[in-house]
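Human: Respectfully, please carefully check these C-alpha cells:
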Amino acid sequence: MDFQILLYYCFVDIPDPEDIAAEQRAWCEELGLRGRVIVAAEGINGTVSGSHEAADAYMEKMREHALFAPTEFKIDDHDRHAFKRLSVKVRSEIVTLGLLVDTVAHTGKHLAPAEFKAKMADPDALILDIRNDYEFAMGRFKGAVRPPVESFREFPGWIRDNFTDAKHKPILTYCTGGIRCEKLTAFLKEEGFEDVYQLHGGIVAYAKDPGVQGEGFEGDCFMFDDRMSVPVGPPVSHCEKCGRLSARYVNCSNVDCNKLYFLCETCEAAKGLSCSDACHNVVRSREQNARLSPDLRSEAARLRKQRHRAKRRLALQSTHVRNTIGP
C-alpha cells in the first residue's frame, strides 16, 4: 500500500479562516495531496490522500502549527489516491448543524471503543446514529436509532419535537469519525440532556480497535471517498436487483434520478446501472452521454435541493393548517 488516507478535525478558534485555507491549499499542493478540507472560524475538518511521505509531512506540519497541534488523525493505508482532486473551502461551519454550540464546554463524554461497547449493554441506554440515511442503511450498531431526517442540520428540530422525554436516559451517539458527535452532543447538553456520550474516533476508530474489533456493529461503514465503504461487521445490506448480500453503492445512470442504491457487480454487468426499467432507456444517462459526467455532481445537488425545498414547503403548509384549525 503506497498511499494513506487521513481523516481529521480540530475545533479551535481561527481568527482568519481565509488565511488558513490559503495555507492549507499551499501545503496540499506542495505535497501532492488530494481530498477535501473545510476551514471555518470554529476549526478545521479534512480528509486527504497521498503518498506515505506526503501524509507524514502533512501531519508533521499540522502538529507544528500553533492552532492544530492537538489534531488527531485516523489513518488508512490504500493502494492509490482516494480522491480525484483537491478542494479547500471556507465555510461558516466545519460540519453544518445550523446552530452555534460550545463544543469545548458542553460536548458529551468521550468513550473509548471498549467503554462504548460496555455502555451499549445498558438496557436504559439509547444508541443514536446521527449520520445520513444511506450511511445507516449500509451499516449500524445493533439496536441503534436513526431519526427520520434528511440532513444533519435537521437533528435539533427532530430532537426538540420527539426526544425530550429521554433527557434522563443515557444517550450514546456515534458517527463516522466523531466530528458530528462533537456538535450534536454539545446541543444535547445545552438542551438539558443529562447523560450524554459519544464514541471517540467514531466507527473508524471502533473498527480498528484491537480490543473490540468492530463487535456490535453490523455491516460496512460508509466513507466519503472513492472507497465508498470499509468492512466492519457482518454484512447487512442487499443488492436491490438480486437480493444477494452487497455493500456496493452506485448511482442510477439516469442523471435526473441519480438514486444511490445497492447493486452487486454481477447485476451491473448484466443490467447496467439504471435503478429501474423507467431509467434504463433515458437520453440523459451516464452510459449514453459521457459529456454530462463533469456536471453530474452539481446537477444531482441541485435536484436534491429542489426536492428538499419542496418537502419543507409541504411541512410548513401542514404546520400552518394545524395551527389555524387548532386541536
Q: What stands out?
A: The longest strand covers residues 3-11.
